[in-house]
Amino acid sequence: MSDSGKRVLLAEPRGYCAGVDRAIETVERALEKHGAPVYVRKEIVHNKHVVETLTERGVVFVEETDEVPEGALVVFSAHGVSPAVHASAAERGLRTIDAACPLVTKVHQEAKRFARDDYEILLIGHEGHEEVEGTAGEAPEHIQLVDGPGSVASLEVRDESKLVWLSQTTLSVDETMETVSRLRERFPQLQDPPSDDICYATQNRQVAVKAMAPDCDLVIVVGSRNSSNSVRLVEVALQAGARASHLVDYARDIDAAWLEDVTTVGVTSGASVPEVLVRGVLDRLAEHGYDSVETVTTANETLTFALPRELRPARTAG
Question: I need a surface site. Which of 80, 230, 242, 279 has the fewest CB within 10 A?
Answer without folding.
Answer: 279
